[in-house]
Amino acid sequence: MVHVLRRTGQALRPGGVLVSIQPHRSKRLSISITARSQRVPVAALVNPPFERYLSAAEASLRRVVLDRWFTLIGRTSYDYRTRLANLSELDRYLDLLSPRPRFPPGGRRRLNALWASRLPGARIQVTESMVLIALRVTSTAHNARR
Amino acid sequence: MKTHSELSAFPPPGVEVRIIERFVQLAGRRILEVGCGDGRLTFQYASRASAVVAIDPDPDSIAVARRVRAVEGVRHAAFQVASGERLPMSGQPFDVALFSWSL
Q1: pLDDT tens for residues A89-145?
Q2: In this complex, which of A73, A74, A93 lies closest to B9 when CB atoms are compared?
Q3: Count of CB contacts below 8 A, A vs B?
Q4: For B34, which of A8, A76, A93 is closest by C-beta distance?
Q5: Residue B40's closest CA among A54, A124, A21, A55?
């Protein structure tokens, strides 16, 4: 990944900007049930293989800054929510994610129990977080191209 | 109930571009997007950029992006099958490089 970031730096004009959008490493996908302005948290899903990818990606971004190929412009995070109608829609949503996250022990049972006793109009709410990291390329990248 | 095609695990359209533009303006810029997939994010900003080169190693995703480009008429966006290890290095340098959920 460091190699790809360096190659990208060489493809940028002097002062060009690299932006990486990726899932937040430490804020896990969480599931809750909402109804009538109430929200009942159910579980935060786990995804150890994916968390290892994200750690590697963040380490690569740190590496190219430490090596002075880029300077950090800024970093921000953003939470976004998706409301789903039922459990099968939740399963289809989770199938979109690769690798698929899984419930912690007891989490699926808790979801099923809370969903079985839901209020009319209830929805399943999935909250995910993304982080955006912006870097500016330095002259190091362009000197390396020569 | 959402149909399968409507179901998305990505942020709502427009959110990512709005946050990117807190750090860098995309209008009038030459943009390289690495890991563009089917162009989901690309088509949210491409009409404002001066030129876009969007790459992804998956030929099927690039084929989808090219079909959408033809429908949307975004002529200055080029979709190429390539990986981050083999970036298009010829031509003018880019102002902005985006890694959209691909690093």
Answers
A1: 999 999 999 889 999 999 999 999 999 999 999 999 999 999 999 999 998 777 776
A2: A93
A3: 114
A4: A8
A5: A21
